[in-house]
Amino acid sequence: MSGGAATMAGALGAAAAELRAAGIGAPRREARLLMQHALGLRPEALLAGEDRPLGGAEACRLSALVRRRAGREPLAYLTGVREFWSLAFAVDRSALVPRPESETVVEAVLAEAPHLPPRPRLLDLGTGSGCLLVVLLSELPGASGVGIDISAASVSLARANAARHGLAARATFVVADWGAPLAACFDIVVSNPPYVPAPALASLAPEVVRHEPRTALAGGSDGYACYRRLAPQVARLLAPAGLAAIELGAGMADEVASLFAAAGLVEIARRRDLAGIDRCALFARRADPRIPT
To answer: What's the pTM value of the predicted model, to 2 decimals?
Structure first.
């Protein structure tokens, strides 16, 4: 982006043009978000100040951000925040950027919440940014929960997100390899495990493959490695009348159901995301008549 734009409107146009040339979708929108971040402005202030001269330091900050975005660094990593379920989550390179399709897991749990205890204990295996656990705690006022991640940096991020939304007193975060150190049972278990098959990693969007943590993406040679490890641990940690909600990779629902069935869990429902993909499978220890199939 040229550093010679004199006004915010001119700088915005130049930023959008640079992003468009780099193949970024919705370049004007992204340029606007980068400018808001670079200048520390609210959206309404940006709209009202289009004719304001852009200072040299401001222009440099914006130019640096636009250059990084044109290099396909994720927008959320540049601004440090991503919205999920209408809540703002801090994000960084230690965890995946929360994705809209993962909201399917939240929807599935909340739909079944009336059939579960009024003060449920939640477990989030592979918590990452903490988005699933934090959203569920915000929606279930009587709930408490534990988030597990093998990455200490992710656990720190998740803990900060719980505090950001006033939920630190109801959330505990632990660095661990899945649920290995846990012995208690949980009424709700959720997980968004890595499920991208190794051969498919190179074909992911540049934002993902170049910048997001590979350990949170890679699901082994066939994509099911983490599900194989997860199924027996979920079966061990799920309360007798509990519910597990597991995110699915596209086309993986049947095989995941078989893996969980082998561990002693019954699939009671599937939910599709907005693209029509089976994105979440619900499991119980047994077919519970209180939970509709």
So the answer is: 0.91
